Structure formats: C-alpha cells, structure tokens
Prior knowledge:
The chain has helices at 16-31, 50-59, 74-84, 101-112, 127-130, 133-150, 169-172, 182-193, 219-231; strands spanning 3-9, 36-42, 64-68, 89-93, 118-123, 161-165, 198-203. It has 233 residues and is of the alpha/beta class.
Amino acid sequence: MMVSIVLPCYNPAPGWEQIVCSSYNAFCVDAGEQAELVLVLDGHSVAVTAESKAYIKKNIPGLKLVEYQQNKGKGYAIRQGVAVATGDIIIYTDIDFPYSPGSLHTIYQTLKNNEADVAVGVKDPAYYAQVPAMRRIISKYLRVLIKTFLSMPITDTQCGLKGFKKEVTSLFLQTTIDRYLFDLEFVRNCFRSKKYRVKAIPVVLNEHVHFRKMNYSILLPEMLNFIRLLFKK
C-alpha cells in the first residue's frame, strides 16, 4: 500500500535536510516499503539553500517538491502537498519530525490495517512537561473551547501528526484556513461528514524537539478563525 508523507517547510533550523532524510529512511525501514515524500517550501527561507535541496533530491528517490516565494501558512502548504500526493495513505507532519518513529508508524499501521479512515495524533500527558508554559496554557485552553463550543469527541486537534486514506483527500482539500487551525477545521469536517471513521492515536514527542518562541501575532487571527468555524454550516 503506497504511502505519501507531506512536509510543510518554512524557516527550518540548520541541518533540517539531514533530519528529513534520516527520518524518512527510518520510516521506510519500519514500513517495509518506499514512501513518496512531498516537500512543500512555504515561502523563502534562508536555511533552504540550493545545496540543501540538492541533498534531499539526492537522498530521497522520487521526491516531489512544491515551492513558492511568499509564505502562506501551514494549512495552505499542506493542502498544496496533499493535492499532488498519490499515496493510498497520506500522512503529514512537521519538517523536524517532532514525534517518535513509533508514533509515525502507529499512524501508518492504523490506516493500513483499516482500523480507521482518519488517524489523529493526540499528545500524551508527558508532552505538556516538554513544552514552554505559554504553549501549554494555549493548548489546554483551546481544548476547553473545542469541548465547550464544538462538542467533538477529540479535543486535541493541533498535534502535528495526522494521516488519512486517499478517499478522504477531497474532504481535506475543502479546508479553508491557511494557518494553524486548519487541523481543527479538518477534524471537525470529518466528524460532521459522518462518512469516515476517525481514531485518536496517542503520540510521543522526540527528545530532540526544540520549540521556537511563539509568535503572539497569530493569536487574534486564529481566534477569529475559531469564531468563523462556530458559524460555518
């Protein structure tokens, strides 16, 4: 069963290309098959050089590269990657592969074994001990808002690891949010459609993960996106 891995990339840390290649190869070994990697360069980034792109192209056969000059947001970037992915299973995560190889493999196996149509990574309690205090507060506050106003079975929608079967692609591409709450929009669409089986998968952070300083300017636009979702038919 062919699997596609979609990675959005914007301002990655130095050495990102080695992390991508090593994580990709580890996944292929665990899965026992070659995966299609779709790399989406979401705007100009200093760390994304001609050399780094050449390195990835050399080490990942059949790489699909999508790029554009202006940063448009994680949701927008992943939609561009999903649109060109050809796998029977599509998985997306972050450029630094922040979750353990076992977490990625469990998402894949859940879909391959037909246990679900959509596999949603949810953070384990240990996650909150590894993240900065403000991220922890915002994450938990959003979960309260989701439970209170959207009444969804899964309240942890913002984990950066999810997968779905190819037949769910059209529903994913119907998301409209370009920044971070596209995840919430997608999961909500899945439950509202009542066509797909959605399963929460506990995932674990890698030890090497480094969290950047939060850009607080995104909070107001994302709150407005949340309000729009409340009234979206």
